[in-house]
Design brief:
Layout lengths: L1 H14 L4 E2 L8 E8 L2 E4 L4 E4 L2 E2 L17 H12 L3 E6 L10 E8 L6 E3 H7 L4 E2 L7 H16 L7 H6 L2
Parallel strand pairs: 4-7
Antiparallel strand pairs: 1-6, 2-3, 2-6, 3-4, 5-9, 6-7, 7-8
Amino acid sequence: ALIALVGLRVWQLSSQSAPAELGAGANDRQRVRHVIDGDTLELNDGTRVRLIGVDSPETKFSRRSDGKDQPLARDAMEFARRAVEGRGVRLQLDNEREDKYGRLLAYVWYTGEVGGDELMLNEELIRAGLATALLRFPYSEPMKRRFREAQTEAKAAKLGVWSAAVSAGNE
């Protein structure tokens, strides 16, 4: 019975649909008007986008803060600004399309400055140690694996939220 359950779960994960592109074609770009914080953006059309699977430190303006910036909140916001503010991005959707605040949930892809590679903002924030991976939500397993790997890299390198200085400040 256990083997059957494991087999069923493996089949479910492997047959899970891939995240969908927003818009009619894969090359549709949305312009980012403003980075609100490390994990939330506003598009030119006013749509607010919450990065799937990412939790960046809260700024003092967040409902979840105590009126002060959490350590690295501004760094996460600046990282996102440099990457996408005023630029065209490609949005990729997954199982859930909106959060409880009505924000669009998406993976945000942008063109990197070095080499022109397409990078995922969600993953790059985690890799830089400026956000942690949120793995409890129902989004694709391949993306969760990517985020786990990025977080493992950041932890091993003691970057950002995983650095000794930030850890010491939270004790």
